[in-house]
Amino acid sequence: LPKQLEHFNATRAQMGAKLGGDAKLRDLLSKSVFLISIGSQDLNPRWNPRPEDQPQGSVVRELAELYVDAVRSLYDMGARKLAIVNTGHIGCMPKRRNYVCDQSLNEITAEFSQALPSFIPSVSSEKAGFSYSIGDFYGFETDIFADPTAFGTYT
Predict the structure, then answer these.
(1) pTM of the full predicted structure?
(2) Cβ neighbours of 103 (radius 10 Å)
(3) From start to end of 4-64, where are the E strands?
(4) Helix or strand or coil: residue 43?
(5) What's the CA gap between 80 and 114, in Å, rounded?
(6) What integer is the mean pLDDT of 78-85?
(7) How many C-beta atoms surround the C-beta of residue 31 within 10 A?
(8) How would you label 51-64 residue by residue, b for 16+ Cβ within 10 Å and e otherwise?
């Protein structure tokens, strides 16, 4: 995540140069909507192993706090409107065509998806003009997995 913020800041500098200054850039960025999808690689031990003795709750809390800090950084770089999509069922990411979901990974994802909305409002109260929306991809997938036919999915 820090590397992605670094890349955005570099892109922001290039945009400012092309637009003719920071004021024009800030105006453009304040009107833009930033879409961010968060958490799947950070929560999945296949991509981000964590020590076995680290409690699941602390991982979720630390990750949520990291994202709030990233949102603050984006605000400080000019972003005012964010569309945030939480992570889906990472325990159901297939390695092959036929797979079985890993419920332990889905439990971590569920906890993160429930925790995230309680962390983001703090940014709204601190930062003037900040607005956001959280898309619940986890909830969407839960509904589809529970009743695929209700969404037009047939096997």
Answers:
(1) 0.80
(2) 12
(3) 33-37
(4) helix
(5) 23
(6) 94
(7) 9
(8) eeeeeeeebbeebb
Cβ(68)–Cβ(115) under 8 Å? no
Retrieve residue 118's tokens: 């309680």
Q: Strand, helix or coil at 152? A: coil
Residue with tokens 């999808």: 37
Angle at 30 between CA 33 and CA 62, to 5 degrees: 65
Q: Which amino acid is at 9?
A: N
In this predicted structure, which of 25-29, 32-36, 56-60, 136-140 has the lowest mean pLDDT? Answer: 56-60
- Please say whether the beta carbons of 139 and 89 come within 8 A: no
Question: Collapsing DSSP states into helix, strand and coil, what is residue 135?
Answer: strand
CA-wise closest residue to 106 among 148, 141, 58, 136: 141
